[in-house]
Specification:
The chain has 284 residues and is mainly beta. It has a single domain, classed as Beta Barrel (Lipocalin). 5% of the residues lie in helices and 51% in strands. The chain has helices at residues 16-19, 121-124, 128-134, and strands at residues 38-43, 48-53, 58-65, 68-82, 85-93, 97-105, 110-117, 142-150, 162-163, 170-175, 181-188, 191-198, 205-216, 219-226, 231-238, 243-251, 260-274. The chain has an eight-stranded antiparallel beta barrel with strand order 1-2-3-4-5-6-7-8. The chain is globular, with a radius of gyration of 20 Å. It starts with 15 loop residues before the first helix and ends in a 10-residue tail after the last strand.
């Protein structure tokens, strides 16, 4: 029986709580530009939401959907990565905790809302082969996307942030701290590969479900959901300045009924290359 070499190292997928340690070194400072203001969102589905920014740390989140009303006071973060575009992020408890991330585009008077939902224990314990056999996503994490108009009813003429394939084939290095660096390879419009090239997860890599939306020129919303350690990542990638801004959401440990963590991230990017495929030799 072959033994383990002295140089062989056990590779461990760390929890989201462990990942958060020192991972927010390159975040940007929050903005106070929304303090004292109120924003009304009219969803494409007919749902309505009102956000009242009490101060730089707390907001009031009120929703009305088919006669059902909910009200919460939430701590939040808000940054303004580009003029008139805000990224808001907070946790709302509906019995189970959900993360709400909002790209608030005040220039176009529209918003894209991303709700991250952590899975139940029984969902996480379902083997990947069973999920594949059933034809369901390999990850049990959910990311729900909704579009809204700001201040006015949603109509057929209301603009939306659109899905994009602009980044397909591109490869980047993103540095989150003085020790944490990752490589991203954007394989297609639904899938990307990541590998940790420095930091707590060095040597680990995986291919996961992802989503791309175009927010502006060289400016993108990138969302990923992981299948090994349940995780939702939401970042804005500004390729004009090669920066990303956003958050990572998941359970603090491996207990799917335990505490959650939701922390801000920021990174500096480097474009590495782009893969182009030659299909000329394929049989027609």
């Amino acid at each position: 029986m072959k033994g383990m070499n002295e140089d062989d190292k056990k590779q461990e997928y760390i929890s989201v709580g462990e990942l958060s340690v020192g991972f927010s070194e390159n975040i940007v400072q929050p903005t106070d530009a929304l303090v004292g203001k109120q924003v009304k969102l009219h969803y494409e589905s007919g749902k309505k939401a009102t956000i009242t920014f009490i101060d730089v740390e707390a907001l009031k989140w009120e929703t009305e959907d088919q006669g059902r009303e909910e009200k919460f006071i939430c701590s939040y973060t808000a940054i303004m990565p580009r003029s008139n575009i805000y990224f808001l992020d907070f946790i709302v408890s509906y019995g189970d905790s959900r993360s709400v991330s909002i790209v608030l585009d005040m220039g176009q008077k529209i918003a894209t809302i991303i709700t991250g939902i952590m899975p139940r224990t029984e969902d996480v314990m379902t083997p990947l082969i069973v999920r594949a056999e059933k034809g369901v996503p390999l990850t049990s994490v959910q990311a729900i996307f909704e579009h809204a108009s700001v201040g006015n009813p949603f109509t057929k003429k209301t603009l939306q942030h659109k899905k994009t394939t602009d980044l397909v084939g591109e490869r980047f290095q993103w540095i989150y701290s003085s020790k944490d660096a990752y490589e991203h390879i954007y394989l297609n419009e639904n899938t990307y590969t990541w590998q940790c090239i420095s930091g707590n997860e060095k040597g680990l890599a995986d291919t996961d479900r992802c989503f791309f939306y175009k927010l502006g020129e060289k400016f993108y919303l990138f969302v990923w959901i992981e299948k090994i350690v349940p995780t939702v990542g939401v970042v804005l990638e500004d390729l004009e300045v090669m920066r990303s801004y956003g958050k990572i959401f998941g359970h603090e440990g491996y207990d799917m009924n335990g505490r959650i963590t939701n922390f801000a991230v920021g990174s500096y990017g480097t474009f590495l290359n782009k893969t182009e495929y030659d299909f000329s030799r394929l049989q027609k």
